[in-house]
Design a protein that fits this description.
Length: 578
């Protein structure tokens, strides 16, 4: 355990008795002395932290290089590859003389919703606390557009079905008629107006003077909403024709079954048609009609709608619609039935040297292109039935493609010339022999390791400590007038003598005594050399004397002096505070 100097300092303080001066004089002197004591303790702490803990190891390396001539013969082989060009070919003109083909289509015979008028909202809200939700339906047959308002003219709060209730109906503020709800009328009962609309109410109550309204138009037709459920109610409805119902079921498009749910939207069913059949289906919001379009162009592919168990086709006005045939050549038919292929005969065509059998009497253009694709010849083949153009390309990048009708006349019929398209990569190899004489270096490396104690920071901190020490010693007013400073002087003398001996020398740093008896330190050029030498030659002894050691636990000179300064600070702070 480190030696504590607090008790010794306190004993010295008890022995110091000086005449008392005015308190305000002591306070000023004490405040100045406190600043110098604190500065000395700061310099002491900095010196404590700057004393090295160990020597630094430095490694230096020196090398000597010698050279020996070595002759080397090198053979270099250079391979140069020129990238190939992917072979491709397309028909130089459309196959059919009539030009581009068109697809077959079917369009609804009329709008999905044929009502020439409109109204909404269909589920208006009450202006007051009434809870019987209104629902409007039907087709508006009135000749005037505007706001149709319903007002409860019955006094008090009434329950639907349990009370007689009268609603006054006005159009643009002009009375039209009354709607009378009677005792026993169940919620949901429809009350038909003279303008073709019907109103019903859910379970709940109505409160006097409550109103709700809807906008009616005699000139704006109603259009279906393809995003809402076909069995929806009011404003959540797809707005099919009044009275039209779509149920769970299905229908067929060109023999492919398409399922229908009553809760589906129009858009959902049309998307199902497009994704599962050979027909595209779309709703036109401008015309309020549904159109089906054959995905294959030409006169052959058609659209057949059958076996509807859901009522969807009737709701879309497609059940009686006529098919508008496509135009152009039907390339799904055997080539022998098409005039453009009159010059094609049965035999083998060659694609990249692979023989592919064709027969115009039994194979269509699509059949031949599929056979090329499946032959393993490494060629992709496709036909655009809109532009009437055949496209062929090597399926391997940077590979040539060779086409040969081989007497069948097939490629001539699709307006592609026999021959080779593109090119394969080409490789050129060049060998070069080179004789080289090289000076080969041999390097011998010597490594030297040395240990060095860093002293510059320690010496700088010791010099600062010496200045702060002497600055404090020069404060004669404090030393002569304050008891605390007498205590500090005794403690400092004790620390210096106790740790450094009667010679008061610290590795070349000498603490001198003035005639007045105060101790001051001397740290000049000679002292710097002496302390630096001690740090380099016996760092452990320097650290033990200044800092102490932990095993066994022994305080050093700096700890002893720090204890005296800390005690003096506490006493001076009390005096300075008055």
């Amino acid at each position: 355990m480190k030696v504590s100097f607090g008790s010794a300092v306190e004993r010295i303080a008890a022995q110091q008795v000086r005449p008392r001066r005015p308190a305000e004089v002591d306070a000023g002197v004490a405040s100045a002395a406190l600043t110098r004591v604190q500065a000395l303790r700061t310099a002491l702490d900095a010196l404590d932290g700057a004393i090295p803990t160990r020597a630094r190891t430095t490694t230096s390396t020196s090398s000597v290089t010698t050279y020996t001539d070595v002759t080397t013969t090198t053979t270099t082989t250079t391979t140069t590859t020129v990238p190939g060009v992917t072979g491709s070919a397309t028909s130089t003109s459309a196959l059919a003389a009539t030009g581009a083909a068109t697809p077959a289509t079917v369009t609804g015979t009329s709008e999905v919703n044929t009502a020439p008028t409109s109204f909404g909202p269909r589920q208006p809200t009450w202006s007051n606390a009434s809870t019987a939700a209104p629902l409007l339906s039907g087709v508006y047959t009135g000749a005037t557009s505007g706001t149709l308002q319903f007002k409860d003219t019955t006094s008090g709060l009434r329950t639907v079905g349990a009370s007689n209730i009268t609603l006054e109906v006005t159009l643009n503020g002009t009375f039209l008629e009354n709607v009378n709800l009677r005792v026993g009328d169940a919620p949901g009962t429809k009350y038909t107006l003279s303008n073709g609309l019907s109103v019903s109410f859910g379970a709940g109550t109505m409160l006097t003077n409550g109103t709700f309204s809807t906008a009616v138009s005699a000139t704006t037709p109603t259009s279906a909403d393809p995003t809402k459920a076909m069995n929806g109610i009011g404003d959540a409805s797809a707005l099919l024709d009044s009275g039209v119902v779509v149920s769970n079921g299905s229908f067929k498009v060109n023999g492919t079954s398409v399922s229908v749910g009553a809760g589906d939207s129009i858009a959902t069913v049309l998307a199902r048609v497009t994704s599962t059949t050979d027909v595209d289906a779309a709703y036109d919001a401008v015309t309020d009609k549904v159109t089906l379009t054959q995905k294959s162009h030409g006169a052959g592919p058609t659209i057949a709608l059958t076996d509807d168990t859901s009522g969807f086709l009737a709701a879309m006005k497609l059940d009686g619609a006529s098919v508008t045939p496509g135009t152009g050549v039907d390339h799904t038919a055997p080539m022998s039935a098409i005039s453009e292929f009159a010059g094609v005969s049965a035999g083998d065509i060659l694609v990249n040297g692979v023989a592919i059998a064709i027969d115009p009497a039994t194979m269509s253009l699509y059949d031949v292109l599929d056979a090329i694709q499946a032959s393993g010849a490494g060629v992709d083949a496709a036909f655009n039935d809109i532009t009437e153009i055949v496209s062929m390309a090597s399926s391997t990048p940077e590979a040539a493609m060779t086409l040969d009708s081989n007497g069948t006349g097939f490629f001539d019929a699709i307006h592609i010339v026999d021959g080779t398209y593109g090119s394969d990569p080409t490789t050129t190899t060049t060998t070069t022999t080179t004789t080289t004489t090289t000076s080969v270096p041999t390097t011998t490396t010597t490594t030297t390791t040395s240990r060095r104690v860093p002293t510059a920071e320690t010496l700088r901190r010791m010099e600062a400590f010496s200045r702060a020490f002497n600055t404090l010693q020069d404060d004669n007013a404090a030393w002569n007038g304050l008891r605390a400073m007498g205590t500090l002087r005794g403690a400092m003398d004790s620390a210096i003598t106790g740790k450094l001996g009667s010679g008061k020398s610290l590795f070349g740093v000498t603490f001198l005594t003035r005639e007045s008896g105060l101790t001051v330190s001397q740290f000049g050029a000679r002292e710097k050399l002496s302390l630096g030498r001690s740090l380099r030659q016996d760092l452990r002894d320097v650290r033990t004397t200044l800092v102490g050691r932990t095993s066994p636990d022994t305080a050093g000179f700096l700890d002893a002096l720090r204890s005296a300064l800390v005690f003096a600070e506490r006493q001076l702070r009390d005096v300075a505070a008055g």
